[in-house]
Amino acid sequence: MDINNLIARVKAILMTPKAEWPVIAAEPATVSDLYKNYIIFLAAIPAVAGFIKGSLIGYGAFGIHYRTPIGAGITGMIVTYALGLALTYVMALIVNALAPTFGGQKDQTQALKAVAYAYTASWVASIGQIVPGLGWLIALAGGIYSIYLLYLGLSPTMKSPTEKAGGYTAVSIIIAIVLSWIIMLIVGGIIGTGAMMGGAFSGTHLGSNSGDVTIDKDSSLGKLDAWSKKMEAAGKQMETAQKSGDADAQGKALGAVMGTALGGGDQVEALAPDVLKPFVPDSLAGLKRTEVSAERNGALGMQVSEARGVYSDGTGKSLDLEISDLGSAKGILALAGWAGAESDKETDHGYDKTYKQDGRIIHEQWDTQSKRGEYSIVLGDRFTVKVSGNADSMDQLKAAVASVNLSGLEALKNQGVKKG
After folding, report:
1. CA-CA distance, 420 to 264, in Å (whole number)?
2. Alpha-carbon distance values, 345 to 66, 258, 299, 355 (Å)
3. Rg of the chain taking only CA atoms, in angstroms
4. Domain total in the chain
5. Burial of 325 (C-beta count, 10 Å sphere; 0-12/13-18/19+)
6. Which pLDDT tens digit goes with each residue over 25-63?
């Protein structure tokens, strides 16, 4: 591999993408060439940067500072890198499969070009995670620019008409977000990587020959399989809408695809503000409610609702209560539950841990010096209830969450859900 050519390509795709994409599309290449000459180098950046940030620099919040143990950090780096390489190819498969839907031509090598070179901005920007304070902003900018690069590249590589590139990009990115969440959950539970991977794919039974494979529909893999079939159906709906030429039908079909992707295969209407707001009590942990609000936001068929309460005793002690209905994005919470992501980090003056209890995902964060923390719980793979602020102990925050009508909220988990 010529490092000078690699650097030149990175500079060209980032600085002059409109001119570079036709060059890329016309280049003779194979999947193997793309991996050994480009992808294996660029995909290593986020893995290495993550190791530097997690194990060498460390994280901080609420006065707590911690580092991932070197051994776990190295394991996480390797897993991140391997999954990143795999994700690139899976995304190329998806881009290739979607091509006819958006008037393009299927070509697996060209699809890999589109994905790999569009990912360049995100891969390079991942270096920003080691920059204190501004790291998230750099990473966000890289992600947004990668979306723009994909938008520019789909027409030259996949021969999709320019006017259809926007929808093609949107559907591809939504699927990429879902896949990236899966990777984050897996790596987030790196302290138990082997058990986690085994748990994620439990329910798969192999017989005496390779053709004898059954999937338990109630297992994690079974649920993902059902989800994928609903995504396929939504994709066919979009293809029909594209052929009809009806702009309204195309917009609804795009919303259906995005909603199905994030909703775990279902279309979900988030709870209305007046339904969510009553779950914010007048008092919490002995503190009087001084502020309450509720809202529902949505776009392209996706909706999310949130209700919030602020509680204070007038002497500086206060707690914030946030109740969220992820609505159309409830599939993301389901993925977390299926993967069984758990973590436990401790310092001399605090801890941060995520675990499952009675089928619910729970997150605790506490700083013994500032007496500040947060406690959150996931209900019905859809709702989150979080209390944060100053307290006498974590038990007080837990009691505050318990005083909310959790069972009543969880009972609404199927409200507004249209099964795919």
Report:
1. 9
2. 7, 35, 37, 12
3. 23
4. 2
5. buried
6. 999 998 888 988 899 888 888 888 877 777 666 655 444
Residues 6+ apart with CB under 8 A from 127: 45, 49, 138
Q: Are strands 213-215 and 267-268 parallel, antiparallel or unpaired?
A: unpaired
Statement to judge: residues 184 and 39 lie in one domain: yes
Helices (H) then strands (E): counts for the chain = 16, 15
Record the tokens describing residue 213, joined without a space. 């494979």
Six token digits for residue 344: 């436990």
Tell whether 285 and 180 lie within a shared domain: no
pLDDT-derived band at 305 (thresholds 50, 70, 90) equals confident
Residue burial 212-231, b: 16+ Cβ < 10 Å; e: rest: eeebeeebbbbbbeebeebb
List the domain range (segments joined by +) for residue 300: 273-418
Give 378's contacts (C-beta < 8 A, 6+ positions apart): 333, 336, 337, 360, 361, 362, 384
* Final residue before a domain boundary, out of 188, 220, 253: 188
Token readout for 136 is: 């998230």
Q: Please state, in angstroms and rounded to a whole number, the distance separating the CA atoms of residues 178 and 262.
A: 7
Question: Mean pLDDT lowest for which of 14-28, 287-301, 334-348, 362-376?
Answer: 334-348
45 and 163 co-located in one domain: yes
DSSP codes, 132-179: TTTHHHHHHHHHHHHHHHHHHHHHHHH---GGGHHHHHHHHHHHHHHH
Helix %, strand %, coil % for the chain, to 5?
60, 20, 20
